[in-house]
Design brief:
Structural class: mainly alpha
Radius of gyration: 30 Å
Number of helices: 27
Strand content: under 5%
Largest sheet: none
Distance between the termini: 72 Å
Order of helices and strands: HHHHHHHHHHHHHHHHHHHHHHHHHHH
Length: about 475
Amino acid sequence: MFSNPLKSFTHITDRILHLLSSCTYPTHIHQIHAQLIVQNLHSNTTIAHHFITASQSLGLLDSALTLFTQLSRPHVFICNTLIRAFSHSHVPHTPLSIYSHMHRNSTLPNNYTFPFLLKSLSDFRELKLGECIHTPIIKLGHVNDIYVENALLDLYASCGRLGLCQRVFDEMPQRDVVSWTVLITGYKNAGMYDDALIAFEEMQYAGVVPNQVTMVNALAACSNFGALEMGVWIHDFIKKRAWELDVILGTALIDMYGKCGRIEESLGVFRSMKEKNVLTWNALIKGLALAKSGEEAIWWFNRMEQEGFKADEVTLVGVLCACSHSGFVDTGQRIFSSLLDGRFGFLPSIKHYACIIDLYARAGRLEDAFNFIKVMPFKPTKAMWGSLLAGSRAQGNLEFGEFAAWKLLQLEPDNSGFYVVLSNLYAEMGRWSDVEKVRIMMKDRGLKKDLACSSVGTEPLEDVFEFFAQ
C-alpha cells in the first residue's frame, strides 16, 4: 500500500511550522535550517515567512538571509519579507542587497517591495541610492501607490531634499494623513517652520484630518516660529476631539506655550497631564527660564526631584539658565557645584559651563566669568565670548568688551556683525584710529556693514537647548 505523498508533505510542513512557532533557542533555528534544505522546503513561501519571523525574534536574521539567497529564483513574497525584517533591524545596505539579488535572479519587485526598501535607505540618509530606486518605481508603474509614494516622500524629507519631497507630493494623485505629516515633519526638521505651517494650513483646506503625529510636528513648528495663534488653534482642536494628552502631545503643547511666553497656559497643560516624563519637566523648566521666572523654575526643579524624576543634562541647562536670567548667582553656583560633585550622575558639559559664564556676566561679575573661561576644560565658544561681551557693555567695561569682541572675530572672521561691534566699542572709547583700522579690515575682507546687525546677539539659551535636541 502506497503512502500519499501530498499527505506526507502536508504533515512535514505542519510539523516545521509548529516547531517555528515554538522556537525559543538559536540551536532550534539552526536545526530547522538544516531540515529545510534536506526537505527542499525553503522555497515554500509560508514556511519562509515563519522562518524569517522566528529568526528575527532570536536575532538570527543572517541565517534567514543565507538560506533564502541560495534560491536561484526566490519568490517575491520571500524577498519582501526579508527586506521588511532587515528594514526594522537597522542593518545598513542589507535590504538593498536583497533587492539587487532579486534583480539578478529576474524576480520582479512589486508595490510591497519598495516601501520598506525606501525606509531602510531613509534611515541611513542614502539619497543617491534612493534616487536610483525612484527610477524603477516609475518604470514599473508604482507611482500611483500611496504607500510607495509616502516612502519616497520620507526618503527625500529625511535627506533634507525638501524641493524633491514637495515635487513628489505635488504629483501624487491622492494624499492621506501620512503624506501631509511627512511633508510637515520634513519642513520642520529642516528649520523651514513657515513652510511647515503653510503645509499644515493647506492640509486643513484639503479636508484631511490630522493625527497626533501631525499635531506634534505642527506644534514644534509653532514653537520655533512663534506662531501662538496657530498653536492655540491646535490646542482647541485637541480639546474638541477629546484627545488624551499623552506624554508626547502634552510635552509639545507645554513647549509651544513656553516658547511663546504663555507660561500660565503651559502650567495648565502640565497639571492636566496624567503621565509625565523628564522631557515634560524639561519643557516646563525651559519655558520658565525663557520667561525669566527663575524662582518658579527652581521651585519646579525641586518638585521634579521630589516626585522621583531624575534630572538630565537638559534639565540642568534649563535651571542654570533660569538662574542666569533672574540673577540667582548663589543658587546657580550651588547647582553647578552639585554637578561637579556628581550628584546628578554626570559631569557638566560645555553648555553647563556656558550657563555659568552667562550667569556671572549678567550679574556684572566679569572677572569671575573671565577666570571661569580660563580654567574650564573646554575651548571657549561664541556664546561664551558673547555673554562676556554683553556683560562688559552693560557694565561699561570697554576693555573686557574689546577682548571678547576680538575673540569673536577670531572664531568667525567673516562675520561683519562682530566688526561692527568692535568698531562701536572703539568709538565709545574715543579710539578713532582703531575705528578706522576695523573699517579697513572689513574692506580688505570684502565685508559690508549690515545695517540690521549693529550689535551681537548673546542670548545663549536657544543655542544651549538646541545642543541637547530632544
